[in-house]
Amino acid sequence: MNASPAEKIIADAPPPVRKIIHVDMDAFFASVEQRDNPELRGKPVAVGGGHRGVVAAASYEARVFGVRSAMPSVTARRKCPDLVFVKPRFEAYRAVSTQIRAIFADYTDHIEPLSLDEAYLDVSEDRHGLGSARAIAEAIRRRIREETGLTASAGVSYCKFIAKLASDQNKPDGLCVIRPEQAQRYIASLPVGRFHGIGPKTAERLERMGILTGADLQQLSLDELKGRFGSSGDWYWRIARGLDERPVRSHRIAKSVSAERTFDQDYRLAEDLHAQLERVAGLAWDRIARHQTQGRTVTLKVKYSDFELISRARSFVDPVSDPATFAAAGHLLLDQLLPVPKGVRLLGLGLSNLIEVNDAVPRQLGLAI
User: What pTM was estimated for this model as a whole?
Assistant: First the structure.
């Protein structure tokens, strides 16, 4: 049966434009610390770090001096002599994150958390009749401020890629809306280093090729990009044109769950290293249990006193489903490195190749692959 003209118009019509919000809390860990301790307000604050660790988060007052997350604490202190280090309180951050997720859930069921402090929301359905995605984003930001005392920035657009770019545009405490007709001009104006999916090394490689901005990237054909970057070239070509059909996934599973610890002193003795690894395994398993997940690959991370970083992994046929097995796999991996050639300043242990837990199906550790 031939389709009617009306049916053909409907069939040929483009899919409806989605309305995506990316919400990103402003300097989340540091802002929680400043909120809870008035003496820290207005001061440069680093969460984590201390004597030998790395900065987990930095307040905006600290960022003015160039302090950034993942920076060694000695470097951060050198950049900002008045920097105040505070110990992380992950239970407090998780509690606030739970409050924020509850606010999101009042506006949509389509929520994809990326971490404790950021998430994608699909608000194509205007649940409260606010009239626009901008109005929904403004309502969410207002409620976050009222209910938590913290600020959030948001990006609003028709796809995840541009919404995430937009959320960073007017930080802190900002809102940016990029409509479909504005997308290519907006992308053209940005440096390629801003594009998620293009890491620092790739950005440097692009810059050596004379590709500094989105406008430069838009000049390259799909074949040119695939020839230079393989399968990643397809992604670069698409994002340069604002093409991103990825849906907001409400039940996004983390790729891995891990924990690590930087020590106040270097360790070389086997018994000391195994004792420290047991503590790290306990911290990691707490996180694994909270994620309600299991995984097939255990990975050990070791950083030596000279900052050399190595990792060792072991995979299993069946998922690792209990803390004793998880820790035992870590100890076996550590044994393969003993005796260590130099002092160890950090140990980490993680689980990847994750699956959702199904309590109805009993599992047993299988043979290593």
Answer: 0.71
